[in-house]
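Purpose: get a first structural picture of the assembly so the mutagenesis plan has something to point at.
Setup: two entries, given in the order below. No constraints added.
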Amino acid sequence: MSRTIDAVVSPTQTNTIPADISGQMLDLDEDDDLEVFSKDSTLADGNMFNASMQTSPGSMVNQCKFEEDEEGDSKDIFITVDNPESHVTAIETFITYRVLTKTTRSEFDNSEYEVRRRYQDFLWLKGKLEEAHSTLIVHPLPEKFVVKGMVERFNGDFIATRRKALHKFLNRIADHPILSCSEDFKVFLSAQAWELTTYKKQGPGFLSRMGETVRAVANSVRGVKNRPEEFTAIQEYVEDFSNKISCLDKVTQRIVKEQKEYLEELKEYGPTYTLWSGSEEELAEQLKGVAGCIERCCKETEEQVGHLSDTLVPVLHEYVLCAETLKAVLRRRDNIQAEFEAKNETLATKKVDRDALKEEIDKLEDRVEWANNALKGDWGRWQRSMRGDLKSAFFSTAEKNVDYYEKCLAVWETFLLSQRTEPSEETDRDNTP
Amino acid sequence: MMADSGPKEVAVIGNTDLTSAELDNNIKNTMVEIEKGTSLLRKMEISVAEAEKRTGKNTVNMQELYTVYLIETRPVDALTEGITPDSLWRRYSEFELLRNYLLVTYPFVVVAPLPEKRAEIVWHKLSADNMDPEFVERRRVGLENFLHRVASHPVLCNDNIFYIFLTEDKDWKEMVYETGFQAKADSRLKAVNAAFRVKNPDGRFTELKHYSDDLQTVLSQLLRVRARVADRLYGVYKVHGNYGRVFSEWSAIEKEMGDGLQSAGHHMDAYAASVDDILEEEEHYADQLKEYLFYTDALRAVCRKHELTQFELEMVALDLACKKQQKEELVTGTVRTFSLKGMTSKLFGQETAEQREAKLQVLEHQLKEGEEAVKEKNTESDEFVKTAWVDIERFKDQKDRDLKEALISYAVMQISMCKKGIQVWTNAKECFNKM
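Result (structure tokens, whole complex):
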């Protein structure tokens, strides 16, 4: 099924509407079982945190299709994050990563971009995306600091892990039907360093952002009164999921730790047989053989631990962060609804300018509906991603473990073969399950 | 077969009334008999069948809890007739007494060791408690192994005391003490002294001593590291059990992933549980190594006995040489070396001819005795070296065979562990695929 994602135009960038969007806007969703959006909904995009921008519900038509296979053959943007480099200035030392983009999308002027970005830039992008789409699920960024301390920041492993996570972050956004159309995203991928700095300075000023924060706090204190059942269900799920995934994260890290300690002991074990072989005549060869087997098993163990650290640990960690993201998204949705409810109450109880308030309430109502639909749509998408990611990670781990045991088996069987002079009397033992 | 060779006919070796020459002769005869395969084990089935706890008063009249082991014996050909075995109970200290007796009575034999009195070199899961059933069980096996070793030894198997240990309940202890073996035991001081001062021990024994020390060091280290490895492996497997629990809980909140997770969880539980059997099997391997670790003591004991014998020979020979020189000095009237006699003669004057004559006679007598002694010691030493070396070669062959088999069984265990791992993770993989 080809992907016919239609452009979503952010209200803040009215001058970048692609010319041909009108033709695509009214395409109806043919995919029945993925009917996340009401076909004739006319929705305003994003939140109105930016007080200076007015949007009317009818100005935009937003039609999106969420596909099961987001990375189908029609993937039109490829992003890689690599090549970490250290930069030293008078004030600070930091790392930048190369972000390479190859795309055929028309909203990009070129087909290829190469820029350098630092962690701060990724943080900025995430913030902008969450600002513009507060109830969409943005894939988490790797954490700012490692708990152990700042010293770890420039450690090779830490940088490698971070790089991979940043790579995943950008690709997830690229795969997201709505988020990937964000202008901020485009600028992030294409602008040169100084251009980005300038661009960052645009947008709502400090005071208006303060205002938003105050409102958000007020809303969360107020609380929501009539949360729809489905969101309560999602919230309960997220709570449980968060607990389970945190558990799994801890268990897996513990396994890595135990496995590493096992490896350390094993490294001492083999050489003891070699030492022993020095005192023996008849047994020397055999003892050296056993030492060799243990040594080879050591190598396999090392590889297996590496695989676990590279494959399962980061994914579980990512989803621990995801759980927090989900909680935040649910909170933001609640806040939007709370604001709406509050205004409604005011309408009912206080003496105010009813017409102006009514208009505001209508806008808020639309916002609530849009927010709910966005979340619902993204929720299904997130669940599928989660399932795919975790299934793949666990499967890969199990596969590697099978491989590990198979390799060790081969090592010992080879040794045994070299030892047996009378196969007949040994076969019985071998057949014992 | 039991009727043919009753205990009285067989157990000549244990009789300490025999002179050393006769003893040696009997040993030679017995050794010839090995070739005919009359080791006790072939005639008699011996097992340490059970262990039980008893309470009783100990030497300081206090109540104590101790374990007794049931020794069952049965003539081999009676198997088919379904005859119940004879049995008696013995405690560990009696085994120790038996072994000490054998050590003293057959100093040229590398006597099999007993299993540990107290649990040492265990990995943490195994209790170091002597009363722990697992420890008791392993000790039972070790004691049975000891009896088999003795019963299949060409020399030891014919010992009467050993036979009675296996078959007669009452008064065995008194019998052992009556042999007077404790008096024959060489004092530790004597042995250490000899070890330091011996001049020409047989090079092979010196080499053997070094080998024993090396083997002890390396096996101790090996057993320690193995125990640590086992500890760690246990940890790895058991933590996976947590996956089982969490997967199960997680599956409750998932729709499509639920089944896959739930069944994967079961496999993780199985994986965690499998380590118990794996490590128990490995304990047998460790016990085999431990036996040879303890064997090094027996090897060293034989070497010490050689050093002692050799030392005594050297002392006697030295004494003889001394006396010869004294005679020479007396006869020729010259004092070649500085001696007390030389001094006294200088100070107090020479002695009379009668005095000299008397002294000479005494010396002659002593010389004759000395020569006899040297001859005797020489023979003793030679015999010892010969018989000991035969047993050492026997021991070496046994050790190589046993350890070779142990290493093979270790490889088999590793293979089994890998196969189990493959199975579990393949199953888990299938389950994850269904998520």
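Residues 91 and 118 of chain A are 15 Å apart (CA to CA).
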